[in-house]
Amino acid sequence: MARNKISIIGAGNVGATCAHWLTKKEIGDIVLLDIIDGYAAGKALDMFEASPVEQYDVRITGTTDYVDTANSDVVVITSGLARKPGMSRDDLLKKNLEIVSSVSKEVAKHSPDCIIVVVSNPLDAMVHAAWKASGFPTERVVGMAGILDTARYRSFIGEALDVSVTDIQALILGGHGDDMVPLPRYTTVAGIPITELLDNDKIEAIVDRARKGGIEIVNLLKTGSAYYAPGAGAAEMVEAILKDKRRILPCCAYCDSEYGIGGYFVGVPVLLSRKGVERVIELQLNDDEKAMLQESIDHVKALVAEIEAM
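Now predict its structure.
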């Protein structure tokens, strides 16, 4: 039986870290691609040489040629630029649109039956761009952000309560970071509602820190941004897909009638399986949650309008 094949486009910190997490899961062979000659090959060889020590039987290779990614089952797109001094938000959006669109066309050409997982920012707009450029059905294009925001939220809850993070379950809707819509009503610790364990002020402080989780790390690192948690989030999605685990995870997925969104990729709980996004889970929201989600949707619509005008 043929082994699963996973390609990761972009061998920077997020892409390489995603590959590292995936080696330990042993769910498929990995191809790491980057446009810089030798960059992906060097990182892949280094990870492969760690396999006898860490005891994983995964073949990981690096390349600059999309031919080597052919017939992948899942492709993770981490390509894109970080904002630099003197670069406007529109400049960043335009450049990353060009990169993600170009990558997605190559992915579709060489792996027409794969599922695409997008990590590039601004996420909701880049998932839309990947969908348009690839020509794939919506269920085979999905973005990673909700898992990252939820992971930060769960981590901070575990820290506040001094309990294992493995006992904490949570869901977040909407866009990444500032646009995230927290759902304390759907947050539990070993089945106990978080509202029974923490007061509202403490919950709101944790939510606010989770919203600002990315910039907190940027401010600490000073010369970079987060990659361990984003890489782990993407790897979790790949595992759910290739193992057909049918997990319910917060992802950026296409919604039409769901939540009244009307044809945009937005962060929602989805069932992930070998088919990709098998279905969107629609929750009953209260008025405050609906208002926050609508604000997030409006921002997504504005971003999509911008990239479609470019």
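The radius of gyration is 19 Å.
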